[in-house]
Amino acid sequence: YWYDHYLRWNESDYPGVKSLRFSADQVWKPDILLYNSANEEFDSTLHTHVLVNSSGYCQWLPPGILKSTCRIDVRWFPFDTQKCDLKFGSWTHDGWLLDLRMLESDTSGYVSNGEWDLVGVPGSENRVFYDCCREPYLDVTFVVIMRRRTLYYALNMLVPCLLLSAVTFLVFLLPANSGEKISLGQYFASTMGMVGLSVMTTVFVLQYHHHDPEGGSMPRWVQVLVLNWGAWLLRMRQPGEEPGRSPPCAPSLLSCSSDNSDGGGSPVTHPAGPIANGHLVYAGIPIAAIAPVPFPAKPPDIPRPFLFSPEPPSSVPEDPLSAPHLSSILKELRYVAQRFRSQDIARATCNQWKFAGAVIDRLCLVLFALFHIVCSIAILMAAPNFAEAITKDFL
Question: Which Pfam families does the UniProt record give (predicted)?
Answer without folding.
Answer: Neur_chan_LBD, Neur_chan_memb
